[in-house]
Specification:
The protein is mainly α. 71% of the residues lie in helices and 4% in strands. The relative contact order is 0.16.
């Protein structure tokens, strides 16, 4: 894996996430909940479909830590743990999936974002003492997962084309 490309892609996606979605420029409000895609989790999905399991865990941990430091308001380490675990678990059954199919990418993005965001949001609300209940957490996790799944094929295609030009598509 070409770690320099991972760092560059992560930086670009963090800038896009914080400027377009966290400022609510391209986020949507549905039923009083602001939903936005999770570009770092989509990058983790891209890595999980192509790299070795240990590399996926390391990349997931690093991407989650970057989110903890830049995007998230909660305690340090929750995002890192959720990203690393989610990415690693995805590598356990990726061999049986047709990873180039758009529908597979959409469902994997939907499942990954939901599986990471649901416990992460609940833990963040618990640590920060928020009065948000399970329904609020579920609405936010579902909304973010659907928005991320809608963008997944485009982002994964773009990352694949850019990585292929950079020579990272060896594995």
């Amino acid at each position: 894996m070409r770690w320099a490309l991972v760092v560059i892609f992560a930086y670009v996606l963090i800038v896009i996430q914080t400027t377009l979605f966290d400022t609510r420029l391209l986020a949507f409000q549905i039923l009083g909940v602001w939903i936005k895609p999770d570009l770092l989790l989509l990058m983790l999905l891209f890595i999980a479909l192509r790299a070795e399991a240990v590399e996926v865990f390391i990349a997931g941990w690093a991407l989650g830590l970057a989110e903890d430091l830049i995007v998230s308001e909660g305690p340090l380490g929750i995002g890192a743990l959720m990203f690393g675990t989610g990415g690693y678990l995805l590598t356990l059954f990726r061999r049986v999936l047709g990873r180039e199919r758009i529908l597979t990418q959409v469902f994997l993005a939907l499942g990954l974002v939901f599986a990471v965001r649901l416990p992460q949001q609940r833990l963040l609300f618990w640590f920060t003492g928020s009065s948000a209940g399970w329904l609020d957490v579920l609405e936010k996790a579902c909304g973010d997962a659907v928005y991320s799944a809608a963008l997944a094929p485009y982002l994964l295609w773009g990352l694949g084309k850019t990585a292929a030009r950079g020579g990272a598509e060896g594995r």
